[in-house]
Amino acid sequence: MELRHLHYLVTLGETLHFGRAAERLHISQPPLSRQIALLEEELGVGLFDRTSRTVKLTAAGEGFLQDAKEILASVERAKRNAISANLGHRGSLSLGFMFAAAFSIAPAILRAYTTEYPEVHLHVGEAVPSLLIQDLRESRLDVGLMYPPGEMAGMETLTVFEEPLVAALPLNHPLSGSDDPIDAVDLKDEQFLITRREASPYFHDTIINHCKTEGFVPKTFLETNYQHTLITFVGQGLGVALVHRSMQTSLPTNVKFRPLRNPPTVKLNATWNSRNRNPCTDTFVQLAAKLGPTMHPGE
């Protein structure tokens, strides 16, 4: 029994006329009659009662017709699913993101992706950039939303978002009374709170290099993995920090954000392993690249 036999059966069962069924199937009537007879012989039951004028389904034929329709529908569904999976419209995707992305574009991109691709099972986790790279290398993640990883063999990366840094000051700081831009050098005598280089070389070096460009080396007092911790300690009067502009959306108490003149900018990239063959990675990266540049959190 082949799928074509089921097509023959369904077409004849719907038309109850060998001539019309053969015409719809684009074959001649004698081969259709032979194939139906062979199918009945294989099953050992009669599917149709034939007279010179009429064709009727037997009781066995009625039941087999419904089963055949369900089988053919399942085959078509399997075809659509295979095509959809190959296009990245269904399947699963494992995504990692760094903490700062939670305050910029990650929530909006995740909402948009789950809306556009509801049949993709999305597993999302947070980690520092250094751990995200390790997970991508070892294929525990399909894609990461993170800082540019630098030149790394086997990694593909695409910038999907970029934003400036701002100064985070205690609310009682002498420079907290205005919304005008300041220069980073205005903070040269302050204690700096900064992200650990081991956790994020890109972000750490961006801050240090900008301060050096401004003519000073920051006096670091505290290092941590997460910017939200920096913001918390700034609010407690333990120092100042340069953070993503989008961190303003965290609405911390006792913290004043001031824009910087000629601020350094940080990039947020979609990063994946070049060996990754998951088509859902492509659909996610394409959507992130389209949506990310339209967003301006923290403005």
Fold and architecture overview:
Pfam families: HTH_1, LysR_substrate. It comes from Paraburkholderia phymatum (strain DSM 17167 / CIP 108236 / LMG 21445 / STM815). This is Transcriptional regulator, LysR family. Keywords: DNA-binding, Transcription, Transcription regulation. It is a single chain. The protein is 40% helix and 24% strand. Strands 3, 4, 5, 6, 9, 10 and 11 form a seven-stranded mixed sheet that branches. Strands 1-2 form a two-stranded antiparallel sheet. A two-stranded parallel ribbon has the order 7-8. It has three domains: 84 residues, Winged helix-like DNA-binding domain superfamily/Winged helix DNA-binding domain (Arc Repressor Mutant, subunit A); 93 residues, Periplasmic binding protein-like II (D-Maltodextrin-Binding Protein, domain 2, 3-Layer(aba) Sandwich); 106 residues, D-Maltodextrin-Binding Protein, domain 2, CATH 3.40.190. Helix 1 crosses helix 2. The relative contact order is 0.15. It is α/β, with parallel strands linked by helices.
Secondary structure blueprint with pairings:
Layout: H1 3-15, H2 18-25, H3 29-43, E1 48-50, E2 55-57, H4 59-86, E3 90-97, H5 106-116, E4 119-126, H6 129-137, E5 143-146, E6 155-170, E7 191-195, H7 201-213, E8 219-224, H8 227-235, E9 241-244, E10 255-259, E11 265-273, H9 279-291
Parallel strand pairs: 3-4, 3-5, 7-8
Antiparallel strand pairs: 1-2, 5-11, 6-9, 6-10, 6-11
